[in-house]
Amino acid sequence: MKTLPTExxxxxxxxxxxxxxIAVIRVSGKDSLAVVNPCLKNPLKEKDVRxxxxxxxxxxxxAEVVDQVVATYFQNPASYTGEDVIEISCHCNPLIINRIIxxxxxxxxxxxxxxxxTFRAFMNGKMDLAQAExxxxxxxxxxRQSLTQSLRHLEGRLTEKIxxxxxxxxxxxxxxxxxxxxxxxxxxxxxxxELREKIKATVGKIEQLIHTYDxxxxxxxxxxxxxLGKPNVGKSSLLNALLQKDRAIVSDIPGTxxxxxxxxxxxxxxxxxxxxxxxxxxxxxxxxxxGVERTLAQIQTADxxxxxxxxxxxLDEDDQVLIQLxxxxxxxxxxxxxxxxxxxxxxxxxxRILTDLSLPAVEISxxxxxxxxxxxxTIKSELVSDESLEAEEVVVTSARHKLALEKTITSLLQANExxxxxxxxxIIAVDLRLALxxxxxxxxxxxxxxxxxxxxxxxxxxx
Length: 463
Description:
Gyrase A, domain 2; alpha/beta; six-stranded mixed β-sheet; Four Helix Bundle (Hemerythrin (Met), subunit A); 16% strand
C-alpha cells in the first residue's frame, strides 16, 4: 500500500463476496455524510448517530431505487477508524453492491486500498500496530487456538506485555539521564550493580515472550503434515481415519494414489494441512513416478511426516527406501513411525527395527479406527514440545515481533556489556534508547513507513 492522503473519504465492501443475506459497505472520512446522503431517500442527520436507519437507496435519481438498506452513522472519534463512518447493510447481490459503491464514488469518495480502514484506525490512535495486525490474523485464523490468541492481541494483551517491558527500560534509563544532568555533582541514582540486575530481569521477560514464538508460528501459519509409505500400506485409510470421513480413495490395488491429496484437520486446536502422498517405490509407470517425485518435493516443506509401515509384516525393499529417506531428512522434518494394520497382528522384527530409529512409533489400525487419538496426541507432542505454552495468555505469533524482541535483547545486552566495562552513562543510555526503538516497532511507535505499507498492503480490501 502506497502512502495515501488521509483526508479522502473512502468506500469499500467490508463483507465477503458470495451468496448471503446481507452485505456491509463501509464509508470513512470527513465527507462521509456528504457522499452518502445524496443516495438516500431519508438522509442521515447528526441526531442519527449510532442508530440503524432503514431507508431506500437510489443511484442519484430518487425514482431509481437500488435497494432497501439499513444505514448506521458513527461520528468521529467514536468509530472504528476514528473518522466519520457510515455502514450500509444491503442485500448480498454483486449487482446491488457495485451500484451502491459506484453511486458513492460518483459523489466524491474513492475506493479504499487494502487495509486502509485499519490503517486509518492506527494513524488516528484507535489501536496500535500490534492490534492492527491482529485484525488480519482474526480474519485468517485457521484454528480455535489461533483465533483465541488473535483476539487477545486485538484486546491489547500483547501490547500490555510490551508496555510493561518498555516501562522497565524507561525507569532505569530515566535514572541514568537524571544522573547525567547532575554529573558535576557526582550523584549516582542507580548503582551499576543494580542496573545490571535490572537489565537482566528485563531480558528474562523478553526471552519468555520469544520462547512462545515457535508455538505461535504453528498457530498462525498452520502445520503441514505429509503421510509417507509404500503403495497399499494404508496411507489413504489413515487420512480418512484422521478426517473421520472418506476423502481419499481406498483400494487394494497398489499405486491408486498417483498424486498427493490435501485435506485440513483440526488436531486439538491446531490447524493441520494433511497430505496423502503417492506411494514411495521403484516403478516403471510414468505417471506414478511423477507422483513419487512430487512426494519427495513435499518433504522439503513439511513440519511433520507420518511414515506408515505394515506393522504385522516384515519390512521389504520399499520400506527400506522410506527408512533411508527418514534418515536423510531427520534434521529437517519431525518423523512419526506409524505401524498400521494392528488388527492383523504385530511383527516383532518390524517393531524393533523402527524402535531403533529413536523416533516416536504408534501402532494403529486405520481401517478399524484404532489408536487414532493416540496418534493425534503423538503428532501434537512432536510439534509442541512445551505443552505449558497452551496455557500462556499471550503468545508471539509474528516473525516481525520476534525479530524486534531479539533486537531489543541485543541492545540491552550491549548496555550490560558497557556496564561491565564501567563505560560512561552516556554510552549506556544510547544502548537503552536503541532498545526502546526496537521495542517501539512492535506497537508502531518507531516503525518505518515501508514496513507499515507492507503490513497493511497484505490486508483484504474493506478492512
